[in-house]
Amino acid sequence: MTESNAEVFFPDPLPGQERFVAPLDDTPLADVDSVNDEVPATSMWADAWKKLRRNPLFIISAVLAIFVILVALFPFLFTKQDPMACNLDNSLGAGTSGHPFGYDLQGCDVYSRVVYGTRTSVSIGILTTLLVTVFGGLIGAVAGFFGGWVDAILSRVTDIFFAIPMLLGAIVLLQMFRTSGSIWKIVFTLTLFGWVQMARITRSAVMEAKNLEFNTASTALGSSPVRNLFNHILPNSLAPIIVMATMSLGNYIVSEATLSFLGIGLPTSLVSWGGDISTAQSLLTTNPSVLFYPSAALAITVLAFIMMGDAVKDALDPKSKTV
């Protein structure tokens, strides 16, 4: 900057207001403001995946979860025994070749029942999680985006269901459908009392996202509110929704097992971990292995999904990043 230019931009200061202008050679603005074009652009999802694949907790839990899902989808690949084929002559028999876990009180193969019970328990957990995410997410998104009387009404409905414990409500409701043998009665019952938390999480995320600049810019370009909600707001609110869904899946598996354990869940004609645990509880002191195997399968499955939810939460939550 020449002396004449300095006089144009910086006139003679008043006493006590002297300014110092550093020479241009001492402040290489070109180097400070330069951008490395060779570095590829990243997104929140790319950063999250990069962090997840370096997290041993996520790798272990993901491997366990994938293995459990494979067992649930293809149980015939892991056992050739019919879980409903029982012989009283084998009652409480020890493990043998082809029957590593032994037999239960009715002479049924414990290993095959654990394998086929995976399909029932995991299916209920996944289906319930999907329905809760869609139903609760939609209610929370509408309440958070439109606000006003819409938010007031939906929030009061949410508060009513939030005041009802999920298991207690499920027990009362399932007493009316004891004759039904479908897993859908469990799925719909858990969805009816489990969507509240998802709705609250989605409402908070949408209320935060709708005040960001991209929503204002989209509205200025003529986009309708509904289009903004589904094309811009919800995609930018998925992080907490995904975390909530991942962590809730294990809870729904436990809830199904609890209801079956109490005898008001699935009928005995369907193989499930909760039903087998309920049947084997009287053998805890005499033959604990019959109770141990379905309980261990339930605990490992739930632990895998909870650990994966914790890892996903750490990856998607900006506050947890230490960089």
Question: What does this entry look like structurally?
Answer:
The protein has 323 residues and is mainly α. The protein is 63% helix and 0% strand. Helix 5 runs antiparallel to helix 6, helix 7 packs antiparallel against helix 8 and helix 11 (238-261) runs parallel beside helix 12 (273-280). The mean pLDDT is 81.
Radius of gyration: 29 Å
**Global geometry:** elongated
Please trace the helix and strand order, writing H or E for each element: HHHHHHHHHHHHH
Q: How widely separated are the two ends? A: 38 Å
Mean pLDDT over the full residue set: 81
Give the number of helices: 13
Largest sheet composition: none
**Annotation, overall tally of beta strands:** 0
Task: Draw up the topology in text.
Elements: H1 3-9, H2 29-32, H3 44-52, H4 56-73, H5 110-146, H6 148-162, H7 166-174, H8 184-209, H9 213-220, H10 225-233, H11 238-261, H12 273-280, H13 288-316
For the structure shown, list the relevant keywords.
13 helices; 323 residues; mainly alpha; elongated
What's the gist of this structure?
Helices cover 63% and strands 0% of the residues. It has 323 residues and is mainly alpha-helical. The longest helix is centred in the middle third of the chain and has 37 residues, at 110-146.
